Amino acid sequence: MNFSESAQAKFSIASWSESLVTDIDGTGTTAGDAYYPKRGVTQAAVSYSYTGDLEGTSTLVYLIAYKADAAPVLGLERFEGSIGGHEGTCVFQHIGSQDQGAVSARVEVVPGLGTGGLVDLRGVAELSIAGHSDGGYQFVLSYEIERKE
């Protein structure tokens, strides 16, 4: 689907807390307070902050699988702020995969969960992250807001 508008922004991770859901083999590793299974599933509670054409904050819950190669990542993110000057809230759905140090995901606006100026928002972004960045991560949302008369 093609959208008529494009919003370019950067997002930074304000907080990340990951906890074990299941460990298949019992052979994971611990880093800080988090345990990462070699094969298994974790849940992450995350907060992002956005600057650029998207201005605001979000809260996100990820389910993250761990295995030897590309493993699924699923998430729901509630954004609050403005997109292209339209104020409100919306929900993004993340469906992707991750492996050693890289994440890729398709991020779609969930229809029917917007408020204010984002109530009729439709859109999609392709997210690709390789490694850690202190300067934030690029996010480009192709979107449109249906105008109801």
Task: Please give a handful of descriptors for the protein shown.
mainly beta; single chain; 149 residues
Write structural notes for this entry.
Helix content is 0%, strand content 72%. The chain contains no helices and 11 strands. The chain has strands at 5-23, 29-31, 34-36, 40-52, 54-66, 71-83, 86-99, 102-109, 115-116, 121-130, 137-145. The strands form 2 sheets. An 8-stranded antiparallel β-barrel has the order 1-4-5-6-7-8-10-11. A two-stranded antiparallel ribbon has the order 2-3. It is elongated and about 55 Å long. The model has no long low-confidence stretch (mean pLDDT 93).
Draw up the topology in text:
Blueprint: E1 5-23, E2 29-31, E3 34-36, E4 40-52, E5 54-66, E6 71-83, E7 86-99, E8 102-109, E9 115-116, E10 121-130, E11 137-145
Antiparallel strand pairs: 1-4, 1-11, 2-3, 4-5, 5-6, 6-7, 7-8, 7-9, 8-10, 10-11
User: Strand portion, in percent?
Assistant: over 45%
Q: Provide a count of the helices.
A: 0
Helix and strand string, N-terminal first?
Answer: EEEEEEEEEEE
Structural class by sheet pairing and helices: mainly beta
Strand line-up in the sheet with most strands: 1-4-5-6-7-8-10-11
pLDDT averaged over residues:
93
Low-confidence stretches: none
C-alpha end-to-end distance: 23 Å
Q: How many strands appear in the DSSP assignment?
A: 11
Largest sheet: 8 strands, antiparallel, barrel
